[in-house]
Amino acid sequence: MSGSLGRASAALLHLGRGVLLRGPALRTRSSGPAGSGSASREHLDALVKKDKVVVFLKGTPQQPQCGFSNAVVQILRLHGVSDYAAYNVLEDPDLRQGIKDYSNWPTIPQVYLNGEFVGGCDILLQMHQNGDLVEELKKLGIRSALLDAKTDQDSK
């Protein structure tokens, strides 16, 4: 993670825990009561396929509880992606381990696009930097806000 992104993440993290705020299109979801099959393969399969963009993170998009989760939220925000499902793995230890097993990826956050595992913070950051994320979002029918920002700059 770049130094400035890390500093921004750290600055946001000092806010700590608080009231959960929900944006108009953002859905922070519970995976269900702990121990109720929240980590079964079938349940996880349903979660990752339910929405076009799904993120499993530590904390919530409004209050990420680690710098990597914050970086993923910030990247999605830069692209104008606000309509996605977010699952807080800190609420459910079974979900936290289950999603790692499901994806065969050892870390959180995890990002899924159209039911397909993309990767964690490092992969999403790389996709953002090389332009692949814009293309992947386009495949989902999501226009990246960065395209609009580029158009605005080009017209000046």
Describe the structure.
This protein has 156 residues and is α/β, with parallel strands linked by helices. The chain has 7 helices and 5 strands. It has helices spanning 3-13, 41-50, 67-78, 93-103, 121-130, 132-139, 145-154; strands spanning 27-29, 53-57, 85-88, 110-113, 116-119. Strands 1-3-2-4-5 form a 5-stranded mixed sheet. Helix 1 packs across helix 3 (67-78). The longest helix has 12 residues, at 67-78. The radius of gyration is 15 Å and the shape is globular. The protein starts with a helix and ends with a helix. Mean pLDDT is 80; it is low at 1-27.
Topology:
Elements: H1 3-13, E1 27-29, H2 41-50, E2 53-57, H3 67-78, E3 85-88, H4 93-103, E4 110-113, E5 116-119, H5 121-130, H6 132-139, H7 145-154
Parallel strand pairs: 1-3, 2-3
Antiparallel strand pairs: 2-4, 4-5
Helix pairs in contact: 1-3, 3-5
Which labels suit this protein?
156 residues; alpha/beta; five-stranded mixed beta sheet; 7 helices; 5 strands; globular; disordered N terminus
Short description:
With 156 residues, the chain is of the alpha/beta class. The chain is 46% helix and 13% strand.
